[in-house]
């Protein structure tokens, strides 16, 4: 998983009815775009995370 600042991290809901969590990557703390990432969620909360298999990166070049 590789990301750059400005990409979105999407954590998919794990159970029926649970919404996806979308966060903007504000800092890449690993080498060469690898995790961990500092992210900012839509409500302004920031966290450091190492995404698991239920997550995806949406690169800013592909967002519309």
Explain this structure.
This protein has 64 residues and is mostly beta strands. Strands 4-3-2-1-5 form a five-stranded antiparallel β-sheet, with no helix packed on it. The radius of gyration is 11 Å and the shape is globular. It has one domain (8-62). It is built from no helices and five strands. It has strands at 8-11, 21-28, 37-41, 46-49, 55-58.
Annotation keywords:
64 residues; mainly beta; 5-stranded antiparallel β-sheet; globular; DUF1918 domain-containing protein; DUF1918
Please outline the helices and strands.
Blueprint: E1 8-11, E2 21-28, E3 37-41, E4 46-49, E5 55-58
Antiparallel strand pairs: 1-2, 1-5, 2-3, 3-4
Q: Describe the global form.
A: globular
Approximate helicity band: under 10%
Q: What topology, given as strand order, has the largest sheet?
A: 4-3-2-1-5
Number of domains: 1
The whole-angstrom Rg is 11 Å
Give a short account of the largest sheet. 5 strands, antiparallel
Tally of strands: 5
Q: What is the percentage of strand-forming residues?
A: 35-45%
Uncertain runs are: none
Please write the string of helix (H) and strand (E) elements.
EEEEE
Structural class: mainly beta
End-to-end C-alpha gap: 21 Å
Let me know the average pLDDT.
91
Q: Total helix count?
A: 0
């Amino acid at each position: 998983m590789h990301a750059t600042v400005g990409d979105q991290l999407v954590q998919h809901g794990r159970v029926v009815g649970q919404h996806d969590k979308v966060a903007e990557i504000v800092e890449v703390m690993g080498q060469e775009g690898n995790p961990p990432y500092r992210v900012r969620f839509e409500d302004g909360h920031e966290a450091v995370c190492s995404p698991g298999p239920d997550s995806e990166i949406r690169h800013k070049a592909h967002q519309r």
